[in-house]
Amino acid sequence: MSDAAPGRARRGAAILALAAELARDRLALAGLLGLVLVVVAAIFAPLLAPYDPAAQTVLARLRPPAWLAGGDWSHPLGTDHLGRDVLSRVIHGARATMLIGVGVVALAGTFGVAVGLLAGYVGGRVDGVLMRVVDVQISFPGILLILLIVSVLGPSTTTIVVVLAATNWMVFARVTRGAVLSARRSGYVEAAQIAGCRDGRVIVRHILPNLVSPLSTLAILEFTNVVLAEAAISFLGLGVQPPATSWGLDVASGRDYVFVAWWLVTFPGLAIMATVLCANLLASWLRVTADPQEREKRFARALAARRGRARASREGERTP
Amino acid sequence: MSVPPPDSTDDPLLAVRDLAVRYPLPGGFWRRRSFEALDGVGFEIARGETLGLVGESGSGKTTIGRAVLRRVEAHRGEILFRGRDVTRLRGEALRRLRADVQVVLQDPYSSLNPRMRVLDIVAEPLVVHGRAASREDARARVTELLDLVGLPKDAVDRFPHAFSGGQRQRIGIARAIALEPALIVADEPVSALDVSVQAQVVNLLQDLQARLGASYLFISHDLAVVRHIAHRVAILYGGRIVEIGPRDAIFENPRHPYTQALLSAVPIADPVRQRARRRLVHAGEPPDLAAPPPGCRYQARCPLADARCREVSPPLAALAQDHAVACWKPL
Amino acid sequence: MTAALSPVEPPLLEIDALSVTFDTRAGPVEALRSVSLVVEAGETLGLVGESGCGKSVTAQAVMGLVDVPGRISGGDVRWRGRSLVDPRNARFARSLRGREIGMVFQDPMTSLNPLMPIGAQIGEVLTRHLGLTKAQARARAVDLLAAVGIGAPRTRVDLHPHEMSGGMRQRVMIAMAIACEPALVLADEPTTALDVTVQAQILDLLADLQQRLGIAIVLVSHDLGVVAGLCHRVAVMYAGQVVESAGVEDLFARPAHPYTQGLLRSAPRLDDAPERLVGIEGAPPSLLDPPQGCGFLARCPIGDAACAVPPPARPVGPGRLAACVRPFTPAWGDDRSVIDERAEARR
């Protein structure tokens, strides 16, 4: 259609502007690059990892990282108590993290958004009942629920995804409900309803687009929670089971050697920390970007800082 | 007036009888408390006529509009549209009514979806009521509508943020008239606009009425604007109509003490006249509608109130042809 | 520049070629472009104009409330001759605000603390600026509530803002603004959120306080009727500039600038309902890329090539300034009669 072209061009320009803004914000950019690195590691793990993460080499047990005495570049981050390559395990561990993180966020997000939409849009008694369910679920200790379900179903990756989704969907429901309520009060939703739009159309065309930015920020933050929770569960032995790999699992199995081989817990631990940190940096940037007022302020502050630096350097030249 | 006089031969387009609306108050799990936003409101609007609804915040003027639009449920009373009670309409029947009763909202910024193009915004009523055969058809109709409200052709492909407040309100009006409704509820349609733009939009509404013959329920707190656009005016106080009548009767010969106080409080943009005016100040607050007092709602502020005013509500009684006042001691 | 009436005593407040720029992603928005105004002690100056004309930004600049993304990009604000913009005077500027300059905003609910009784909030101003003790401050708060027309001040002093009506809250705001007996009160759309009957009472209160206490008031308003009733002098703003300033009666009787003329004729009036309202075609220019010449040129019926250079504000009568090449030219020819008639009727 001919009239689609200007819209597309506009969107292209908006994306370019967004990219330029991200490029200026070094922390957020670092966060994004870090996450991209984790995703790439997860997808291409078999190609990137020098060894099979489960391959044991009895002759090369507890080798230190390459830059320490006794280490060499065949195992850059050293080996563990079974002679497995730590670097390969960290790279493959990204798989479990991404799979579980994304899986849980998708599952919990879908369910939570559905509940929130229903509660926010229908309102009244439906809203009351659904939100009380959310309250009850939030007040129930999550870790207890996890232990309960895992002990019944037995530990596996699928179980973890289900269990973590079951303990994390509530925040999606709450945020969605809040956003739906405020969107429903907006004039254009009222106008659409008075124009005679059916509920489905109102939700899809007028309400859902409002949810994209708050939910994407929330999804990233929830992802970090899930990464930490997965690590904790795997550490407790209820999560990912050997011979599969997971950062949490590796931290757990390395803890007995922490005094003789610190690298066993350090590298998977660092991977967890870096992933969470990167996601948080990106999320906080996204949050500001999604708020037009905050976004303008950030822009003006950056401009003022640049102007200040320019002035300082000019003055510096004058009085060397 | 440049607007043709309403044809009085027909039955009224809209007749509201004894309308009461209650809103629940927050809190109170076992015994839900509510307050009566409207109590026993009745009026009629003829075809092609503009009724101005005037009142201060909490008077119930917006609630009347919302009840007519079926955005709030009537607790009591009926709303007859073309002689048929619409207070119980549901589903498809309600959707069909929507094609005939449209709205122009106050805020030109929040009333247009920022993510939709003007084409899609204005075409939406046509699309959902199956009045646009194709996208090309919708486009042609929208271009026509935009022309009618005084917007350039190239507006169709733009997004709302590219327009000023007045232009946005024109887009909202184009959307409201797309289905050629018989009644348009205009809820403070020019209150958010600057004066120089206000005039353009008021004039546009008048021109469209002359062309399309729609009736307006024009809700406003601005008496000066109402004086320019309304044929008849209803003054609300505390959820009731205190006075209703032809525009000139209300503005030149107000009979209710509240109407008089209200008119005298409106500042006039002329320093000499404004400083020479006598203002009637009736101090006090509107009644608490969660526990309204018996009798007249204005009694606490009215300088003329006596025992009867405090005990018995004055009915809305005709004083002259078409001019009625709810007061025991009309001035 | 504005004519200084007395060479020895500097005016109470002098805004001198003030410019304010907002840095937005779309580019710098020049919200104020070289605005000059003088407020003498004890006078009421009305600042009128439509949304985006810069009237509120002017008030904010005086109060030091221009914050990121906005910045003062030129000019000065002087209090009794002393700069408030100069960073070296930051302390002095801070000490004035709330003490010598009071402020009343449009929405009292957002500027009052919802968790604190109103008496304590008024008292806080007094203890901070005047060093009163708590008991003294409370007694003074009761007096102030009485002064702004709140009945039973002794009991009401302990109410929280949400327990009061909008009009009462605005009275509390006014009490806070005058608590330290300031020389100037800046009132930014103080009655816009109120009903007309309440508005009338608040305007009466402001006029009364102004007369009794000799306070100067700057009233920012979009409502010509409000300005007509309360102000001594009026400055009309358009597109970030002052286009005309005059005594209130002169301005309403004989507007010099075409924009003022247009504004006056487009305001619907309760006292006469002509056949048809008249507006001003078009919309104000974008301040992202303000026009080089007169800001009103695009909408002005009498504008031409001579208006392509920015017209400076120049005297057009006793105490009157207008930024127009052709002041007093009836811009909307056929309506000249209406304006004349009104003026005639008054004489």
Automatic annotation (TrEMBL), chain A:
Coiled-coil region? none
The record's section on Gene3D superfamilies has: MetI-like
Listed under GO cellular component are: plasma membrane
* ABC transmembrane type-1 domain ranges (all copies): 94-283
**Pfam families from the entry?**
BPD_transp_1, OppC_N
Q: How is the protein disposed in the membrane?
A: Multi-pass membrane protein
Q: Which UniProt keywords apply?
A: Cell membrane, Membrane, Peptide transport, Protein transport, Transmembrane, Transmembrane helix, Transport
Q: Where are the transmembrane segments?
A: 27-49, 98-122, 142-167, 260-288
Q: GO biological process: any one?
A: peptide transport
The organism's superkingdom is given as: Bacteria
Q: Where in the cell is it found?
A: Cell membrane
- Similarity remark: Belongs to the binding-protein-dependent transport system permease family.
Q: What is this protein called?
A: Peptide ABC transporter permease
- Organism (species): Salinarimonas ramus
From TrEMBL, chain C:
What cellular component GO annotations does this protein have? plasma membrane
Instruction: Kindly state which keywords UniProt assigns to this record, in alphabetical order.
Output: ATP-binding, Cell membrane, Membrane, Nucleotide-binding, Transport
Task: Check the record and name the InterPro entries matching this protein.
Answer: AAA+_ATPase (IPR003593), ABC_Ni/Peptide_Import (IPR050388), ABC_transporter-like_ATP-bd (IPR003439), ABC_transporter-like_CS (IPR017871), Oligopep_ABC_C (IPR013563), P-loop_NTPase (IPR027417)
Can you name this protein? Answer: ABC transporter ATP-binding protein
Q: Name one GO biological process term.
A: transmembrane transport
Domain ABC transporter span(s) in chain numbering: 15-264
Location of the protein in the cell: Cell inner membrane
Q: Which organism is it from?
A: Salinarimonas ramus
Lineage, opening ranks: Bacteria, Pseudomonadati, Pseudomonadota, Alphaproteobacteria, Hyphomicrobiales
GO MF annotation terms: ATP binding; ATP hydrolysis activity
Q: Which domain of life is it from?
A: Bacteria
Q: A Pfam family for this UniProt protein? A: oligo_HPY
The UniProt entry lists membrane topology as:
Peripheral membrane protein
UniProt cross-references to SMART domains, sorted A to Z: AAA
Q: Which family does it belong to?
A: Belongs to the ABC transporter superfamily.
